[in-house]
Amino acid sequence: MPDNICVAIDAMGGDNAPCEIVKGALLAVNECDKVTVYLVGVTELIEKELTGKSYDRNRVVLIDAKEIIDTAEPPVMAIRKKKDSSLVKGLTMVKEGTCDAFISAGSTGAVLVGGQVLVGRIKGIKRPPLAPLIPTETGVSILIDCGANVDARPEHLIQFAQLGSIYMEYVVGIENPKVAIVNNGAEEEKGNALVKETFPLLKNCPDINFIGSIEARDIPAGIADVIVCEAFVGNVILKLYEGVGATMIKIIKKGMLSTARAKIGALLVKPALKKTLKAFDTEEYGGAPLLGLNGLVVKTHGSAKAIEIKNAVLQCVQFTEQEVGKKIQERLFS
Amino acid sequence: MPDNICVAIDAMGGDNAPCEIVKGALLAVNECDKVTVYLVGVTELIEKELTGKSYDRNRVVLIDAKEIIDTAEPPVMAIRKKKDSSLVKGLTMVKEGTCDAFISAGSTGAVLVGGQVLVGRIKGIKRPPLAPLIPTETGVSILIDCGANVDARPEHLIQFAQLGSIYMEYVVGIENPKVAIVNNGAEEEKGNALVKETFPLLKNCPDINFIGSIEARDIPAGIADVIVCEAFVGNVILKLYEGVGATMIKIIKKGMLSTARAKIGALLVKPALKKTLKAFDTEEYGGAPLLGLNGLVVKTHGSAKAIEIKNAVLQCVQFTEQEVGKKIQERLFS
């Protein structure tokens, strides 16, 4: 088990960079003594954020990168041209083995393209999936795939099921994780062409615990640990999860402020409510791993705050300690 | 404008039949003096529910049907064999012109199959969509299609956009309704093969107000009135909408009961909260119309209570008064 884990962090990516990114990195360093963080970005700006903070200086390394990749830039072009960007430099450190993992809150497209092009796929992985952890009533599930490559084929979905199972087992710590495929009904004859073709293959896949179809209604209840779907559907699920959650909270706040009586009640209810709602907040889970690469790449929300960055770093530590990359190779290709 | 609107209701369909179905029908009769309801089902059971209730006896007609179609039955077979079922009899009344519309809380599959086979499509309609109304922050949107026929083609989606626009304009009363297609990003180059092929066709469709792509995150905010998608995706959206909503409410209740202080607050907050949450309840909107048929067929939730049935009846009244079937023919095929 490696005792010094190196995580490169894109200090310039996301809406709250570099302030929250640096803050999150330091939280991780202070919480976990096995990790060294490499803060990649404009050194002067990062140093400013570090001033006056207390942390182990031996485990925070600054890597200068002068360019920044914008979320609006076409990903392929950006990766090719901006060699001195925090994203390209950080990913290259994983490729070269200087770091075990890379985290970015920047452009999803650039992270996906850069992860595949610069870090590279594990041999035999057809399509590396982006797999966010989503909160449920009972804990957390992995939603796999939510990446940019839509219109997947059955053989991709089989690998998603396998990769998701390994991740949930070794990183999240769920024994024999339950795998389900997103479908428009629970009966076996339901489904679109892709699901109908994939279902029997999942059923016959020996190294996963396949429990059948899951209707979208049952995802928040947490009845499966690994939710397999094609990326277009995954994207709809992920975004709607966040959208309905945000709207519900807005509506509830409106209700609580609608009468004088309710306002008083709201004050009393607030602390307890905040605590339970926090458990249902996607930001608590530290971003989405891009799986099947020669190293771990994690994409956090663009709006990630320090807590999400810290959790992403801890996720990278767990991933590396458990040697998940090696386990993927063994389980899928030997 | 027709001054007597006849609505057939499947009194035996759904979890709460016949009690809530009959109750809802009477609520509608008492609220709207233009409507006559035909309660189709086992007469003795319906009569029992009518006993002691006050309503205009001239506008409540009982139609005896001895058979009941179960939700577990294969739809095509059930429709073919159970000629004396409430579903087949009710749909036949629409086909024959005795009734303008039919409502059922029973088997979705049987309603979809029966609607197409017995009532029949308007000439030129390729695939009648099932289109539930979903609550948003600003009101209500139509989600089209959520039916049983997945893997639609672009020409289907164009008709969905047109049918949804007409429905929102004449039944819900939204002028020049905004149409958007569900996509995995807001940019025009995003999408799976179906969306990429459909997008330019929607853009060039002269009789709709197309505003582009919508990410699932923005659906609950109500930025579009007509949400166009293929039925597999529509099903995921609809079910997840309900699932996340239900889980959020469960979590909030748990939070409110977690401390003594919160419990007192909950009592004060409850009435106001109930009122605002009601506006976000899918049951308030009276079920999903199956559009493009020679008459209106409405599928309500299996768990529909009286209020949903009443709203479904009022929806049928509006649909018939506004002569929406005729408008569909004029707008799409002349």
Keywords:
about 45% helix; alpha/beta; about 325 residues; five-stranded mixed sheet; 11 helices; homodimer; six-stranded mixed sheet
Topology:
Two copies of one chain form a homodimer.
Chain A: E1 5-10, H1 19-31, E2 35-41, H2 43-50, E3 60-64, H3 75-81, H4 86-95, E4 101-104, H5 108-119, E5 133-135, E6 140-144, H6 154-172, E7 178-183, H7 193-203, E8 209-215, E9 226-228, H8 231-256, H9 260-278, E10 288-290, E11 296-299, H10 306-321, H11 324-333
Parallel strand pairs in A: 1-2, 1-4, 2-3, 4-11, 6-9, 7-8, 7-9
Antiparallel strand pairs in A: 5-6, 10-11
Strand order of the largest sheet of chain A: 3-2-1-4-11-10
Helix coverage percent of chain A: 40-55%
Structural class of chain A: alpha/beta
Oligomer: homodimer
Strand content of chain A: 15-25%
What is the overall shape of chain A?
globular
State the distance separating the first and last CA atoms of chain A: 21 Å
Rounded to an integer, what's the Rg of chain A over CA atoms? 20 Å
Count of individual helical segments of chain A? 11
How many extended strands of chain A? 11
Let me know the largest β-sheet of chain A: 6 strands, mixed
Largest interface: A-B, 63 and 63 residues
Task: Please tell me the overall pLDDT of chain A.
Answer: 93
Runs of chain A in which pLDDT lies below 50 for 5 or more consecutive residues are none
> What is the N-to-C order of secondary-structure elements of chain A (H for helix, E for strand)?
EHEHEHHEHEEHEHEEHHEEHH
